[in-house]
Task: inverse folding
């Protein structure tokens, strides 16, 4: 399938994959395999049919595995720096930024994100929070970080996932300004929102969880069986 007609101009998927995977403890995380396929390969394959090109930021000294429909650049020391380099490595008008560490990306989610992008020029996939939320008691007399401090109302709270979509010029301007001001964010939509941009929230999917800690890998292995049989 070629790039959707909802997007005008060229589009690129930008995949930050240059992390060291410290919390997982299995070496550079993008190359870790789940049911025989790396996290990176799964993420690239999920996005490639929807865009004109895929660019991946890899850790220094590593190479793109053969056969993936993507080109590679060297990432930076932080996720933010890796994404900035990716933005500089493409001329596409629309970009979808997606963590290599989120290998299960349903096609419907990509379609919904692309539709939302037409409206605002900036959108992120996110999940409404389902759990009860509490702030730990740090700073409250008699309590500490292991104690219930205060309840946080969960209405209107969303847990941010990727992919996140932007007009490239909008995201590049947000990155340039953040860099000039020495501001760091954990994601790209946060950079755009901080500078007054309107970011549309697009309902995500629980299966889009980020493989972060060893327990997530067990979950990913279990999910991969159904996913690879086409149950998406
Ligand atoms: N310098 C970095 C750090 C992270 N990432 C990417 O950003 C995504 C989200 O990062 P995270 O899950 O935190 O990965 P790591 O940084 O590898 O994990 P850790 O913090 O446990 O080392 C991942 O796809 C990761 O490869 C990146 O491209 N460049
Ligand atoms: C971009 C992200 O995955 C959205 O939830 C997240 O912010 C990445 O955070 P990390 O600290 O780099 O894992």
Result:
């Amino acid at each position: 399938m070629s790039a959707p007609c909802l997007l005008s101009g060229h589009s690129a998927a930008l995949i930050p994959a240059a992390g060291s995977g410290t919390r997982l403890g299995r070496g550079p995380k993008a190359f870790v395999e789940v049911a025989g396929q790396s996290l990176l390969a799964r993420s690239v394959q999920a996005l490639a049919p929807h865009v004109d090109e895929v660019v991946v930021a890899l850790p220094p000294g590593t190479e793109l595995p053969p056969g993936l429909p993507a080109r590679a650049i060297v990432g930076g020391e932080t996720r933010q720096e890796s994404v900035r380099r990716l933005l500089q490595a493409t001329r596409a008008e629309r970009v979808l930024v997606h963590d290599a560490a989120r290998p299960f990306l349903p096609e419907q989610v990509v379609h919904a994100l692309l539709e939302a992008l037409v409206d605002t020029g900036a959108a992120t996939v996110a999940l409404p929070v389902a759990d009860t939320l509490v702030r730990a008691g740090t700073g409250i007399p008699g309590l500490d970080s292991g104690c219930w401090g205060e309840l946080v109302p969960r209405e209107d709270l969303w847990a941010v996932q990727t992919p996140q979509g932007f007009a490239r010029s909008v995201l590049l301007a947000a990155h340039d300004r953040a860099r000039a001001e020495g501001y760091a964010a954990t994601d790209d939509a946060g950079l755009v929102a901080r500078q007054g941009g309107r970011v549309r929230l697009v309902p995500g999917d629980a299966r889009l969880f980020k493989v972060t800690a060893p327990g997530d890998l067990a979950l990913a292995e279990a999910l991969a069986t159904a996913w690879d049989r086409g149950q998406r």
